[in-house]
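Is this the right way to post structure tokens for a design question? Let me know if I should format differently. Anyway, here goes:
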């Protein structure tokens, strides 16, 4: 009576072995492909959203024009694709003497220009050949003399002038006491910078400037003051600061006449201040309306 039991047991073992083999085979089979995942489709905009208050565009409006493409420079200091390069360190062709409009006679060095000594050349400031209007972004790099001479306003003095005659002061303000509204990055005779971000004498410094022009109505009444944003060596020194008027020395600035177009000028204060890498972008501040 034992035999059938043994047979049954052997048969059971065979069945178990066969099941194991099937399981192994199943493992070897490639996995069934997963059902395709439906990629989410993102709309490029909307046509059924509410209108922005007082605007012709809806929220996320698909019909709203996209901004034009500008290729940025290799660094934040390099001119982007839509900039006008005013000085790239190789020639002064974009500059003339403010006094008589003759070719700019400042010293051209290796990749920079320098204010000439007193009595050399025509003298005085230089200005861009071209006039600029309205609102712009301007990048300027400058260095005060490595050799420190004189003090206060006699030390590394120059300046960047905007159309109409508003000065952004250039001065060696590194451990150099002078009046607050006359130090580097000051709106000369009006507003000191928010902080003193000056580098040591001889080092290159950057001004990144956003200038918004003053506006007058048809009768010549001032309706909007000029304002300026300045980033000095990466540090904000003015943020949409209004100008009191065009710059004056020892007098209160005022807006005296409507000016629509004008040059960018660099001041000759008889100190050998250097400049390099100057570029400008005219801004259409309403281009995203
Ligand atoms: Mg000056």
């Amino acid at each position: 009576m034992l035999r059938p039991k043994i047979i049954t047991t052997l048969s059971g073992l065979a069945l178990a072995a066969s099941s194991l083999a099937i399981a192994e085979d199943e493992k070897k089979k490639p996995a069934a492909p997963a059902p395709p995942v439906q990629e989410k489709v993102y709309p490029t905009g909307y046509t059924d959203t509410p209108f922005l208050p007082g605007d012709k565009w809806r929220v996320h409006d698909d019909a709203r024009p996209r901004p034009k493409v500008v290729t940025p420079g290799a660094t934040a200091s390099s001119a982007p694709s839509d900039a006008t390069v005013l000085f790239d360190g190789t020639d002064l062709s974009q500059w003339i003497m403010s006094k008589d409009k003759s070719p700019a006679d400042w010293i051209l060095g290796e990749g920079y220009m320098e204010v000439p000594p007193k009595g050399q050349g025509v003298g005085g400031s230089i200005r861009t050949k071209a006039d600029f209007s309205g609102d712009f972004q301007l990048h300027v790099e400058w260095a005060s003399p490595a050799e420190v001479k004189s003090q206060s306003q006699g030390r590394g003095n120059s300046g960047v002038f905007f159309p109409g005659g508003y000065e952004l002061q250039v001065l060696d303000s590194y451990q150099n006491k002078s009046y607050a509204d006359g130090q580097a990055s000051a709106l000369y005779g009006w507003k000191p910078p928010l902080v003193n971000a000056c580098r040591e004498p001889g080092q290159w410094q950057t001004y990144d400037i956003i200038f918004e022009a003053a506006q007058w109505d048809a009768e010549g009444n001032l309706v909007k003051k000029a304002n300026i944003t300045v980033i000095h060596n990466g540090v904000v020194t003015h943020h949409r600061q209004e100008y009191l008027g065009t710059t004056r020395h020892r007098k209160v600035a005022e807006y005296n006449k409507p000016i629509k177009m004008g040059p960018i000028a660099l001041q000759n204060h008889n100190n050998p201040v250097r400049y390099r890498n100057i570029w400008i972008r005219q801004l259409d501040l309403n281009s995203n309306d």
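Format looks fine. Someone answered above. Worth noting: The radius of gyration is 34 Å. The chain has a mean pLDDT of 91.
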